[in-house]
């Protein structure tokens, strides 16, 4: 009887570990990109129409990257639960689409070219980390 329960526990632990590593990698990649920009002298002051200027710092980077990564993980978990046969391909397609759409706001803000480049690179870094690390491999 314990042999039946063991694979479920192992699968759940493996899935949880894989998700945690993917989320951590996404956040860390964004912090590294931000740090490189900071060292290079990028001015991370961003002005959105009708909003006061905001300087993007590590706190905002962690919060936004963590939120996006957790939402991506939750979306994959739902797909794996309710549409397991197509979950991986649907989720990857959605991740690419969301990443492309996430560039929209970058065109509507006032910021230096360096800031826009770094912020865009962070969007891509989250997608790459999640797509590479989050979905389970096909068997």
Write structural notes for this entry.
It is a single chain. The protein has 139 residues and is mainly α. It has a two-stranded antiparallel ribbon. β1 and β2 form a beta hairpin. α1 packs antiparallel against α2, α1 runs antiparallel to α5 and α2 runs antiparallel to α3. The protein is elongated and about 45 Å long. The model has no long low-confidence stretch (mean pLDDT 92).
Shape by Cα distribution: elongated
Q: Write down the Rg.
A: 18 Å
Uncertain stretches of 5 or more adjacent residues = none
End-to-end C-alpha gap? 25 Å
Q: Characterize the largest beta sheet: strand count, sense, and whether it forms a barrel.
A: 2 strands, antiparallel
List SSEs in N-to-C order: HEEHHHH
Order of strands, widest sheet: 1-2
Helix content: over 70%
Mean pLDDT: 92
Identify the quaternary structure here: single chain
Keywords:
elongated; 139 residues; two-stranded antiparallel sheet; mainly alpha
Structure described in brief:
The chain contains 5 helices and 2 strands, in the order αββαααα. It has about 140 residues and is mostly helical. Strands 1-2 form a two-stranded antiparallel ribbon.
């Amino acid at each position: 009887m314990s042999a039946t329960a063991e694979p479920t526990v192992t699968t759940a632990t493996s899935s949880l570990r894989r998700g945690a590593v993917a989320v951590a990698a996404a956040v860390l990649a964004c912090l590294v990109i931000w740090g490189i920009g900071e060292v290079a002298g990028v001015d991370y002051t961003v002005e959105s129409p009708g909003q006061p200027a905001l300087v993007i710092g590590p706190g905002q980077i962690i919060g936004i990257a963590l939120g996006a990564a957790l939402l991506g993980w939750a979306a994959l978990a739902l797909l794996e639960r309710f549409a397991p046969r197509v979950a991986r391909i649907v989720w990857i397609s959605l991740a690419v689409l969301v990443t492309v759409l996430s560039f929209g706001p970058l065109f509507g803000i006032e910021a230096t070219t360096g800031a826009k480049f770094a912020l865009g690179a962070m969007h891509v870094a989250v997608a790459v980390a999640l797509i590479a690390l989050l979905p389970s491999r096909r068997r």
